[in-house]
Amino acid sequence: SVIANGLHHLDAQVSMATRAFEDAFGHACGANLYLTPPDAAGLAAHHDPLESFLLQLSGSKTWHLAPPLHDLPLVDDEVRPGEFEPTTTVRLTAGDLLYIPRGWLHAGESHDDLSVHLSVQANPVRWVDLVVELVRIAARSDPGLRTSVPVQRATTAEDRRELDETARSLLARVVSASSAGASAAVLTPILRRRPRPIGGYLRSVATADSLEADQLLERVPGMWPIVTTDGDAATIHFSGSYLGAPAEAAEALEFVARTRRFRPAELPGLADLEQRLAVCRALVREGLVTSAP
Prior knowledge:
By secondary structure, the chain is α+β, with helices and mostly antiparallel strands. The chain has helices at 12-25, 127-139, 143-146, 157-177, 182-193, 201-205, 250-258, 273-286, and strands at residues 2-4, 28-36, 51-58, 60-66, 88-93, 97-100, 105-110, 115-123, 217-219, 226-230, 233-238, 241-246, 261-262, 289-291. It has a 5-stranded antiparallel sheet with strand order 1-2-8-3-6, with helices on one face. Helix 2 crosses helix 4.
């Protein structure tokens, strides 16, 4: 197969479709395009550590599927020869959509025509990702976590018990060092590294200065804002950017973060309408919200 990766970075319609998936399923999504010549097999039987939605665009393709070998496999969990025993077979034609849950084994084959399908994949942030990042953060201030492991001392059972005890002690220190809000601190940079959706941004920005108090606005799909406060400042973080404001705007920013559609006049916690309009105009310019259709 010929694979065009990252189609959501290149096509505005695909970008907005993947953001709609993100809002629905709560995970970052991407889209790849697969072209398989007639009477050919794609990848060998494998599983993906993510959820997949396959939309057949043209031609046809048969998929053989089997349940996971174990629950929620990780990226480096491989499928060994002889482990793939399909329990379900389905043939997709143009317009059909197939959902392949995370970890399900699958293999596909085309027929007597060119097969083209779009794969939208939901890639979750797992608890293991969050915990590993918390360990990395703790290591910045705890030299014990940066100390070399004496691997040469793992030769006897007693040595291994000592290593286990040290590992448990260090994990306990990570837990005690994780302050309130530590998880949000980990997720915030992840969100800000995500690219903005493409398409429609310049058209939306052009309307910022003419916003009215009763104009209906909506958050752009898949932006996943997080609001943090620090002293006299409040910040709303989202895909590709952030907006800082005085602390008194925190309630208004939290309202925006949890409300899909709203009007500037509805923003709480601000003294007057002009402040509400100013916040909304800034959010439109930053690409978090846009005029609702």
